[in-house]
Amino acid sequence: MAASLNRLTHAHPMNAKCRGVVMLVVLLLLVAMSLTGIALLRSGETHGLIAANHAFQQGALLSAENRIETARTWLVSNSTSKLLFNDSAADGYFATAASGVGLINNPQFDWSTLATNPLSNAAGYQARHVIHRLCNVAGDPASGIDCVRSPITASSSKSAPSSNNSPMNAPGAVVYRITIQITGPRNTVSYVQAYIT
Q1: 71-99: per-residue pLDDT in tens?
Q2: Are 192 and 167 in contact (CB under 8 A)?
Q3: Is the pLDDT of residue 38 over 50?
Q4: Cα–chain-centroid distance for residue 126?
Q5: Among 15, 93, 148, 192, which one is least packed by beta carbons within 10 Å?
Q6: How far apart, in Å, are the Cα atoms of 78 and each of 72, 96, 134, 147?
């Protein structure tokens, strides 16, 4: 009986050391698992924010496309009139290129007065537009004023037996720049530009 008691007392200090090591390993594993869980949680939140931002971007882009079509329709309906020769502030139209005027994030360009009235949609986005004719001065483009024009490429046949075609460049239609400002949920402000002829 004394011998077995003696064996137990000698075995006890070794078991305490093992328990201490096991406890330390378990605590380290718990810390590692907690850090992994926090990282996964934050990663999930980040993915949620990215998805929400993507949805806001798509909503703003859809609003911009609708507004570009509105501006294009206005240009087409007035293309045969002399209205496009001069500024029409009520329509957000300017007959010159406004060189040197920053339209994007420029506090000196007042979108509320210089652009058209905003078009709103059910998602809470508002879109305004301004149109600039890319000419240096107002007036009739046929009168020789300097305007940016789209190139028109035509082909002409040579009378050679090989009948090769060679390109021939000619000045095309005047180019218009449409700038859209979109405001939306969570103080979203986006700008889109399109060039049309």
Answers
A1: 999 999 988 888 889 888 888 888 888 76
A2: no
A3: yes
A4: 15
A5: 15
A6: 10, 16, 16, 18
> What amino acid occupies position 164?
N
Cβ atoms of residues 53 and 63 within 8 Å: no
Tokens of 19: 């328990």
Yes or no: say if 10 and 16 are a contact pair by the CB < 8 Å rule: no
Total Cβ atoms within 10 A of residue 125: 24
Residue position matching structure tokens 């328990």:
19
Q: How many CB atoms lie within 10 A of CB 120?
A: 13
**Burial tier of 188 (Cβ tally within 10 Å: 0-12, 13-18, 19+):** middle
Q: Which of 71, 72, 197 is nearest to 141 (CA)?
A: 197
8 Å CB contact between 70 and 130: no
How much is the pTM? 0.63
